[in-house]
Amino acid sequence: MAYNVVLNFVPMAYVEKEGDISPDIVDDTHKLWKSYSQKRDIWAQAAQEDTEFRLGRQWSAEQQRILLERGQAPLVVNRIHPAVEAAKALLTSGRPQFRVSPREDSDNQVAQVFNGLLEYMWYISDGTQALRNVIDDYYTMGMGAMMVYIDPLKDYGRGEVCIRDVDPLDVYIDPNSRERLGDDAENIIISRLFTKDQAMAMYPMYEESIRTAQSDLDTDRPVTDRVDDKGIIFPEDTATKTDVSWGTHNEYIRGYERYYKIWVKRFHIKNKLDGKEEVLLEEDMPEFLARPAVSINGQIITDPKKAEGMIQQLTQEYDQQAEQAKMSDQDVPPPPVIEQLTFQDLVEQDIIETVSVPVQRIKMCVIMGDQYLYSRILPIDHYPIVFFMNIHNRTPYPVSDVRMVKDMQEYINKT
Questions:
Q1: Closest CA to 362 of 332, 383, 342
Q2: 143: three-class secondary structure by DSSP
Q3: How far apart are CA 135 and CA 142, in angstroms?
Q4: Whole-prediction pTM value?
Q5: Cβ proximity of 32 and 174 under 8 Å
Q6: Which of 140, 128, 166 lies closest to 81 in space, CA to CA?
Q7: Residues 6 or more apart from 384 whose CB is under 8 A from it?
Q8: Average pLDDT, the chain
């Protein structure tokens, strides 16, 4: 399995100022989650039933009762589970190979570095196991989800870029989204229940906010009428609840990780002197405009070291010429004309061109219960969650292969 990647380097994400956060962000996120949860209820019910069906819960309570009354055993001849496992084994039999394509010949070495970096990210994240889980969800529930994220605490606080799979039932996509990758979604929310101990372990710097967050035991996980005679347990089942038997802060709170697109201002800078271009944030412009420049006999120099060297050389040459002129009783030549400038002056003289450009960025907001923790603008314009949708019908509610063969499996069980 190979992946072809063309990369543009982007800087690390930065944390927004608190003043940029809407005071209604918590309430708005809660309302969005409830709305998205209600809209996807039919799909979530089918996805849960397909998952249970694949694992052997293939008789309803009513069907089992009728069979037992007839003296027949409710046997399950499960043909779906081996087929899904075979597909997973086939698709993950080898480690993925990344091929980073350089845009031009000078990028060959950079491409090799990024190629090794991607393999390193895959290795530290156990990407193969995450891919297995995604493929399993793809065939069973109709949708798999893989996420790229920054773990700031790894590598002794220097941070790492990691990959992980996401439970599709923890993902809430804007119901109006029509693209297979969900890139046109207004919001994407990842939400699940945590104990307060879990949440404080994940975000130790926000311990006080999590401790005072409002508890929440409500779950929107669907429940089916399929008979369970194998003891299968799913996330947020009653069997997994530990709110009365474990931990100091054992009450549950719902966590929300909300992603949405915003427009931010960037400045495209083009230096006509040397042809260099750069893109700056709006808050970096004052520092850029204050950078020093020097005009030496009409020649603009923006490199401070180069300007200093030229000034010293011209000063020495002028001193020599002045001394020679005095010794030969000639007129002293005029001194070099040196003028201290700033980049602001160069912009006004149209030597440096600045263009304000609005660009889209992904904003992430993290909430625990009724407590806002933090938000961050990510240096990307696509959602960091990649969806693997099976039978896509231009909604965020795809159909699984299990659902397509369920009738045949039930026929096998009855014969």
A1: 383
A2: strand
A3: 10
A4: 0.82
A5: no
A6: 140
A7: 147, 148, 149, 259, 362, 378
A8: 85
Alpha carbon of residue 356 to chain centroid: 26
Confidence of residue 189 (pLDDT cuts 50, 70, 90): very high
Q: Please tell me the number of Cα atoms within 13 Å of 128 on its side-chain side.
A: 14
Contacts of 2 (CB under 8 A, 6+ apart): 96, 97, 98, 99
Q: What is the Cα–Cα distance from 254 to 357, expressed in whole angstroms?
A: 38
Q: Which residues contact residue 125 at a Cβ distance below 8 angstroms, ignoring those fewer than 6 apart?
A: 162, 163, 164
337-395 pLDDT tens trace:
888 888 898 889 888 899 998 999 999 999 999 999 999 999 899 999 999 999 999 99
In whole angstroms, what is the distance from residue 31 CA to residue 214 CA? Answer: 16
Q: Which two tokens stand for residue 183?
A: 């890139």
Burial class (CB in 10 A: 0-12, 13-18, 19+), 86: exposed
What amino acid occupies position 96? Answer: P
What percent of the chain clears pLDDT 70, i.e. is strictly above it?
A: 93
- CA–CA distance, 78 with 60 (Å, rounded to integer): 15
Between CA 50 and CA 169 the distance in angstroms is 13
Residue ranges with strand state E in 216-317 = 252-271, 277-281, 292-296, 299-301
CA distance 319 to 177: 73
- Which range among 21-25, 90-94, 189-193 shows the weakest confidence by mean pLDDT? 21-25
Task: Evaluate if residue 57 carries a pLDDT over 90.
Answer: no
Residue 14 has pLDDT above 50, yes or no: no
In angstroms, the first-to-last Cα distance of the chain is 40
Question: What span, in angstroms and rounded, lies between the C-alpha atoms of 343 and 304?
Answer: 12
Torsions phi, psi for 242 (to 5 deg): -125, 25
Q: Whose CA is closest to 47, among 383, 409, 391?
A: 391
> Which pLDDT score, from 0 to 100, does residue 72 have?
85
